Structures are given as structure tokens and as C-alpha cells.
Amino acid sequence: MNNRPRMNNRPRKRSRRAPAADVLVFSLLGAAGAVEARLEAAVSPLGLSLAKLGLLRLLAEAKQPLPLSELAQHQRCVRSNITQIVGRLEKDGLVRRRADADDRRSVRAALTPAGERAYAKGMRALTQEQRAIASSLGTTEAGNLQAVLEALAR
Question: Which pLDDT does position 8 carry in this prediction?
């Protein structure tokens, strides 16, 4: 046995263990859900949801009516979901359906002037909340988070 006193009286550092896989993944999902909830809350007072704003954005950027099937493809969802969202947007006066001149079986969605205004307001609210979320992180934290998210996306 060694009875000599320790030369270094500093407490020993505990080694940090990586969190368990399930804790890590559920923390990531929880954070994503919290961010999504903040973004939804930012556009909700305008009568929008992220799903509605996403479709308005596609239509605004296309600058022309788009087939519902193309909207579904861009949003990575089934056409029946797009049909429901377009129906809600149409009821709100933000989109109108038009027959497709090239394909009688197809329907296109077109942005109305009210839809263009709603899109602009929605994007302003979304951008403002995105900036608030990003500013809650320090520069180093934001850089680390970006690197981690890029690594997870590979």
C-alpha cells in the first residue's frame, strides 16, 4: 500500500459519459417540438399554421398556379393532406382552385391577392421568431448546434 500523501490536492474530475442513446434522441425530439411550437405560435395569430404558410410559400415562389400533386410532392405528404389544406386556404380566401388546362383530371392551386398579403405577413412573423430563437444561443452554441445538426443529417 502506498501511504504517501497525494501531491495534487485537487479533486478528481469525473469523466463525462455520453448520454444514453434514447435520452439523446428524445431530447432532440423534445427540442424540435419546442421550436415547432414557438413557430406555430408566431403565425397562429394571423390565422395561419406552418402547413398553410408552407403551401403559400410554394405558390408565392412559383409565381404561377401549381398542381395539387406537385404541392404534395414538395411537402412530402399524400395528396389528400394537400387537398384538405388547400380547402382551408380556399375557405379563408387565400387560394383558389383552377382547372388544369393541360389535364382535365388535375386541379391547380393559385394564390389570391389576399394570399400574397397573408404570405408576406406570415413570413415576417416567422422570421422574427426564428431570429428570437437563434439569438437565445451564444455564437459558439449556435455554431456547435449547426455542426451537430449537419452531422445528424448525413
Answer: 60
Biggest distance spanned by C-alpha atoms of the chain:
93
Considering the domain boundaries, does residue 16 fall inside one? Answer: no
State how far the Cα of 22 lies from the Cα of 37, in Å rounded to an integer.
Answer: 22
Q: In which residue are the cell numbers 425530439 written?
A: 29
DSSP state of 108: E
**Residue 115 is assigned to a structural domain of this protein:** yes
- What is this structure's pTM? 0.80
Q: What residue ranges in the chain does DSSP mark as E strands?
A: 66-67, 95-99, 107-111
Our CA angle for 71, 72, 76, nearest 5°, is 120
CATH number at residue 81: 1.10.10.10
